[in-house]
């Protein structure tokens, strides 16, 4: 796509029918001119992500038939969309929806991988026809929920109540602290708003907790593999991080108990909820034993609940680990369940640590943005987890990736997680790092297993493959990963394109 209103040639990635758009528009606003209502309604659908950038809108004739409006009304509405930058005209494709200026490059979840990172676009790069030329699979985070722009507008309407003051809320805006506390109470852990400290993301919560509990040189324990940014944050504070393995069946509490004793760890990073990257969910009996072993060892559990509300199949019947110990510090985040761009997290502190954590939190910054906090408070009032349409999309994409990988790479195995955002594949050969390098040469950025190892090496039999990306991006990337696998190990596994099976597969771009 080129400039607004240009008549360039383009092949849209997707098309929207007249009947479907009519259903999305809803009832007309009879208080305004029909063309103005139509243009503004379509603009809001684009701005809120319900009509995706690059989608071909219905032809004028289709929309006339679907809405019963005049051709002049539809033409004027489309012209207004083009004038405002929300559409462009293309030979042979008609009117294409667009975000003014196009999606902003980057925005992927940063991982300490040195040299990896997005190459443009929201999670990759695209040609003029909207087809991927590179896909970033180092990122495991969903896109924003539908209607987020509307929630920001609602929060803007609420903002005047806050702007008469100085705007500093170092512990968090009261409305958000109350919403987070109420959510913990609903989940079975009675919580006062005074126990909630709003942070600029989960990592800020980990950093503040480490500064309070651990002196430089102290030891913290973490399961390996684990989320690498948390380990990096601890090490930047001078903490030594010891590891205990986590297997595909989840946390081994006996191994944790032994590691706590042998390492002398004063704290432990715990990921009981859809572990990143393994995907396991600890049942209540494991959580209770785990909390008990931490208490016996005199170590504080730093529980990362970033993925706690990321269930896909059915909501798990488990309690937060804080229900089993008054000493647990819980870290939460909006980045996975709502949107990474909010950059908001929180600490649920035990009463005994709330004051110390509040003082330590203020050594990092003087508070998160007020507007974003008002947005998150409103989102949490509507639900603390994924939006239903996001959950449905992720569930479908997870299943499609598992099915497609089984066809292309039959030697790869992964458990089907009940939640989270990625699959943790065991490879037939220990070549994860070499595979990541080969995949990059074919336009797919991947994080090797070693990126998730506490020791920064090993786990060469493993590879994380997120399924949060758009279906057409994953459909483009997976065959190239299979080609990269051949580059590394040679041979042609059964089920490759051309083997006669590829034509039988589901298309991810049509099912998600």
TrEMBL record:
Pfam families: Aminotran_1_2, GntR. The keyword Transcription regulation applies. Residues 32-100 form the HTH gntR-type domain. Residues 489-512 are annotated as: Disordered. InterPro entries: Aminotransferase_I/II_large, HTH_trans_reg/aminotransferase, PyrdxlP-dep_Trfase, PyrdxlP-dep_Trfase_major, Tscrpt_reg_HTH_GntR, WH-like_DNA-bd_sf, WH_DNA-bd_sf. Gene3D superfamilies: Type I PLP-dependent aspartate aminotransferase-like (Major domain), Winged helix-like DNA-binding domain superfamily/Winged helix DNA-binding domain. The keyword tRNA processing does not apply. Keywords: DNA-binding, Pyridoxal phosphate, Transcription, Transcription regulation. In the C-terminal section; belongs to the class-I pyridoxal-phosphate-dependent aminotransferase family. This is GntR family transcriptional regulator.
């Amino acid at each position: 796509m080129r400039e607004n209103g240009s008549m360039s040639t383009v092949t849209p990635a997707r098309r929207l029918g007249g009947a479907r758009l009519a259903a999305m528009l809803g009832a007309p606003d009879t208080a305004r001119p029909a063309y103005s209502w139509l243009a503004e309604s379509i603009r809001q659908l684009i701005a809120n992500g319900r009509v995706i950038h690059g989608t071909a809108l219905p032809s004028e004739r289709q929309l006339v038939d679907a809405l019963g409006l005049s051709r002049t009304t539809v033409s004027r509405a489309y012209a207004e969309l083009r004038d405002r930058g929300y559409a462009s005209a293309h030979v042979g494709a008609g009117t294409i929806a667009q975000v003014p200026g196009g999606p902003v490059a980057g925005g992927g979840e940063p991982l300490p991988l040195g040299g990896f990172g997005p190459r443009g676009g929201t999670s990759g790069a695209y040609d003029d026809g909207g087809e991927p030329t590179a896909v970033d699979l180092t990122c495991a985070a969903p896109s924003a929920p539908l209607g987020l722009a509307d929630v920001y507008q609602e929060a803007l309407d609420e903002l005047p109540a806050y702007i008469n003051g100085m705007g500093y809320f170092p512990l968090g805006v009261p409305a958000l602290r109350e919403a987070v506390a109420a959510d913990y109470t609903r989940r079975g852990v009675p919580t006062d708003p005074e126990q909630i400290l709003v942070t600029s993301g989960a990592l800020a919560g980990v950093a503040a907790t480490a500064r309070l509990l651990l002196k430089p040189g102290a030891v913290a324990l973490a399961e390996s593999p684990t989320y690498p940014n948390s380990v990096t944050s601890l090490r930047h504070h001078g903490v030594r991080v010891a590891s205990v393995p986590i297997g595909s069946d989840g946390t081994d509490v006996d191994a944790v108990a032994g590691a706590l004793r042998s390492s002398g760890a004063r704290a432990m990073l715990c990921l009981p909820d859809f572990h990143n990257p393994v995907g396991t969910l600890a049942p209540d009996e494991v959580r209770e034993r785990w909390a008990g072993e931490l208490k016996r060892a005199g170590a504080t559990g730093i529980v990362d609940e970033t993925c706690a509300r990321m269930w896909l199949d059915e909501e798990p019947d488990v309690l937060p680990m804080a229900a089993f110990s008054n000493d647990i510090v819980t870290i939460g985040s909006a980045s996975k369940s709502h949107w990474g761009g909010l950059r908001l997290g929180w600490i649920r502190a035990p009463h005994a640590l709330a004051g110390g954590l509040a003082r330590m939190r203020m050594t990092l910054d003087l508070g998160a943005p007020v507007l974003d906090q008002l947005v998150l408070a409103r989102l949490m009032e509507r639900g603390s987890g994924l939006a239903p349409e996001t959950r449905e999309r992720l569930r479908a994409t997870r299943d499609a990736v598992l099915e497609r990988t089984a066809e292309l790479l039959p030697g790869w195995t992964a458990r089907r997680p009940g939640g989270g955002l990625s699959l943790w594949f065991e490879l037939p050969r220990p070549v994860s790092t070499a595979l990541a390098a080969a995949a990059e040469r074919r336009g797919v950025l991947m994080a090797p297993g070693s990126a998730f190892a506490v020791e920064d090496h090993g786990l060469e039999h493993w590879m994380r493959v997120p399924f949060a990306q758009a279906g057409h991006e994953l459909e483009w990337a997976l065959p190239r990963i299979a080609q990269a696998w051949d580059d590394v190990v040679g041979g042609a596994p059964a089920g490759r394109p051309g083997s006669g099976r590829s034509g039988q597969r589901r298309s991810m771009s049509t099912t998600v």
